[in-house]
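Problem 12. The chain below contains 373 residues. Write out its predicted structure in token notation.
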Amino acid sequence: MVGMPHPEPRHHAATTTVAAGRPTSVPDAPMNTPLVPASTFVAGGEREYGRYGNPTWAAFEEVVGELEGGSAVMFSSGIAAVAAALGTIAPGGRVVVAHQSYAGTHALLDDLAAHGALGVTRIDVTEADAFTRALDDEGDGTGGATTGEPGAVCLWLESPANPTMEVVDIQTITRAAHAAGARVVVDNTFATPLRQRPLDLGADLVVHSATKLLAGHSDALAGVAVARDEQLHQRVLSHRSTHGAVPGILEAYLATRGLRTLAVRLDRAESNARMLAERLSMHPAVDRVRYPGFGTLCSFEPSGGADAAHRVVMASALVRVSTSLGGVESSWERRRRWPAEPATVPEGLIRLSVGIEHVDDLWSDIERALGAA
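Solution.
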């Protein structure tokens, strides 16, 4: 497939988050793209009908597309973007995915597999050569003995992984996947394009739950998929139009406004996360800390397993108990409270999403919660 021409970024990423997706600078033009509440448009243009596009979505897509180095398509949620990415796979194709991935992605893969839409091979990302072996071998759906299924057509990566925080070498694994004839999709929700650009590392498609760090204020559900190849971009765009997973204009407006501060939010929250990870690693009531060295997410396991973890999260006053992440406020939860969470996630693992509060206030609250447990 012929790739789309994407020039080198005009600005640093921190500037792009502020400058891209603005209306043309002419006298009396608004600084921000306004909400356009239109279900239909005057015929003769590119949009025509509200399901095919909206200027408010387009502003968000322009910012994310420039940040990731591709063409972006906005969706109503992160899982809608995941569904669109999986929707580009031909019926019966096999997907290789790590056990250490978002539970919602696993649930969607299981649903598609149960209906015969695709096959799934799960691997352990911590095993050397697991991805390459799964791509080369025919799978039984668990990474075990072969069953005569066709080779993989898609490799699904998360790095860092949700919620166990493993990091993989995207570039090396992508080369192996392409050599095996498989497309590579990377969920870049945790890292954001300010910390890694998977398309530059060879990936074919990037997805985000824009609900999280991109929008960043816990007030908008949104997702986005980004491709550099025009044919793949058009397939994702067609999926949105035909399946109707379109974002609301208010959500798109809020997500774009949230993007404007991504660089400063990420810097502050990441600095907090580094300090908290270091302090947690030295705390006597903590058995293990998982932090990849960047980003705003840190997972840890307190001594005493699931019961202790539950007591810790329920004892906090400042850190909120919540299943989402990436907001300006800090939140945490014991992930295995969800029945659908993969069994590879330890029972007592707490996923901590670090916000932009003062780090000493956060640590005081966390330390007190650990003591209470």
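Discussion. Residues 1-5, 139-148 have pLDDT under 50 and may be disordered. Students who got a different answer should revisit the alignment rule from Section 12.3.
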